[in-house]
Amino acid sequence: MDLAAVRTFVAAADAGQFQEAAAVLSITQQAVSKRIAALERDLEVRLFVRTARGAQLTIDGQAFLPHARELLRAEERADASVRPGRRALRVDVVSRRVASAARVQEFYRAHPEIELDVVALNADVETAIAAVEAGTIDATFHAVPVPVPATITFVGEGSRYMWPDRYDLRRIPVRDPAPIYPMSLIWRADNPHPALAALRDHLASRRVGAPDTEVWLPKWTHRPARST
């Protein structure tokens, strides 16, 4: 169904005259007549009757009008769902129990006008990056792996791992300062969503070194991005 014709039908129904509908839509009265005629052929019913007082809806036109309005509302929702700045910013926080989720919640409290779609993919960094590249999500919080010796790792003091003696490993306590688990915000540099820029600015503005505060700074972007 031609949505331009549906829009013209609604405008004519609201105005009660094809001439006024033409002025509202900034088209000619002839164009209005052609669109209405095409819609009537498509639906195989008469939508208007022309009278000396203007254009009046037929019974079929009255029945079709609420559905026509809903079609136009659906078009607006579909358009808004994919337009940067109008659709929700979709952010992966890895898990709703970790600090990244709290940071996004903090961002929302500071910017309640911004619509957010917070997800927890619970995926590894490669899968999350692939989702960013594909546009499934706008950004993700993840630890970006860096090359380290294969036999060095951090484990919590409450962990109870057992290694075979042949691994020749020993546990060394690390204190003052205690190590943190660094995470990065990963996004596409060509993503134009204005809320993404606002989220990055919010994270970057957090004061480093505040007591009892975990700081999450945007450190890295993925192809076709640059490092920041």
SS summary, helix count: 7
Structural class: alpha/beta
Strand content: 5-15%
Helix content: 40-55%
Question: What strand order characterises the main sheet?
Answer: 4-3-5-6
Taking Cα atoms only, what radius of gyration do you get, to the nearest Å?
29 Å
Which parts are unreliable, with pLDDT below 50 for 5 consecutive residues or more?
A: 208-228
Characterization of the model:
By secondary structure, the chain is of the alpha/beta class. Helix content is 41%, strand content 11%. It is built from 7 helices and 6 strands; from the N terminus they run H-H-H-E-E-H-E-H-E-H-E-E-H. The chain has helices spanning 3-15, 18-25, 29-43, 59-82, 99-110, 125-134, 194-204, and strands spanning 48-51, 54-57, 89-92, 116-119, 139-142, 184-187. The strands form 2 sheets. Strands 4-3-5-6 form a 4-stranded mixed β-sheet, sandwiched between helices. Helix 1 crosses helix 2 (18-25), helix 1 crosses helix 4 (59-82) and helix 2 crosses helix 3. The protein starts with a helix and ends in a 24-residue tail after the last helix. Residues 208-228 have low confidence and may be disordered.
